[in-house]
């Protein structure tokens, strides 16, 4: 059966209320814009979402917060979203803050079938509360559990029809990790080619991790913070 779908909603049939959703992207870079909007329109709720951050108020995962579809966020950075802050303060949103490198390794381990690992990050902090601490070679390490999810939504620049993916520079970020750690993975891409048209050495993620491929007509690719510099031509 072909992995390519012309309707993004057809790729999200497995996503149900109460599931764990893994969402690729970093800030607003490399986020699955079409999938997020489709989930918003579908109205799926009580989600646990694992993502580096939660977008901004009116774009990215912030669109799901707007309709209160997320019950819990597992993230490493959440500082750009005022709605996120307010829902947390109001007790409407549970948040599990995780160091960024630890979050990446939790997803990588989950995708590799490794249930837990030890890291020195967070020892002696609030992050360590309730977690096993062991000493290796005179240094203390926390045991962290891996993360897996029911559905992964990711964004790539190019795919072939099997799902072999190429990411555009830093848009590579958390996308491959979310794909690997999810039971079902949906990728939205800008370009689709036939199998064999991507040099095997250029493949960033094997299509074995991909279940659905959706080609977006265009992507907004909003810039989170635009910084300009005045240039003196005199």
UniProtKB/TrEMBL annotation:
GO molecular function, one term: succinyl-CoA:3-oxo-acid CoA-transferase activity
A Pfam family per the record: CoA_trans
Keyword field: Transferase
Keyword Amino-acid biosynthesis: no
Catalytic class of the enzyme: transferase
Family: Belongs to the 3-oxoacid CoA-transferase subunit A family.
Protein name in UniProt: Succinyl-CoA:3-ketoacid coenzyme A transferase subunit A
The species this protein was found in: Staphylococcus arlettae
């Amino acid at each position: 059966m072909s992995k390519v779908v012309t309707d993004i909603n057809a790729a999200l049939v497995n996503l149900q209320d109460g599931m764990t959703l893994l969402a690729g992207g970093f800030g607003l870079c490399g986020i699955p814009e079409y999938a997020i909007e489709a989930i918003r329109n579908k109205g799926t709720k009580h989600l646990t979402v694992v993502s580096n951050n939660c977008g901004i108020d009116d774009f990215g995962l912030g669109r799901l917060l707007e309709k209160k579809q997320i019950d819990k966020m597992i993230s490493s950075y959440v500082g750009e979203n005022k709605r996120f802050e307010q829902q947390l303060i109001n007790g409407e949103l549970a948040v599990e803050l995780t160091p960024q490198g630890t979050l990446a390794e939790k997803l990588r381990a989950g995708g590799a079938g490794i249930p837990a690992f030890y890291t020195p990050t967070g020892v002696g902090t609030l992050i360590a509360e309730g977690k096993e601490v062991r000493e290796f070679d005179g240094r203390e390490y926390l045991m962290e559990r891996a993360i897996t999810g029911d559905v992964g939504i990711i964004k790539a620049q190019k795919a072939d029809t099997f799902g072999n993916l190429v990411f555009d520079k830093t848009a590579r970020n958390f996308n491959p990790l979310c794909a690997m750690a999810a039971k079902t993975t949906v990728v939205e891409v800008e370009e689709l080619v036939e199998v064999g048209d991507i040099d095997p050495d250029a493949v960033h993620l094997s299509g074995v991790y991909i279940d659905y491929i959706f080609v977006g007509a265009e992507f907004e690719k909003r810039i989170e913070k635009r910084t300009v510099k005045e240039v003196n031509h005199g």
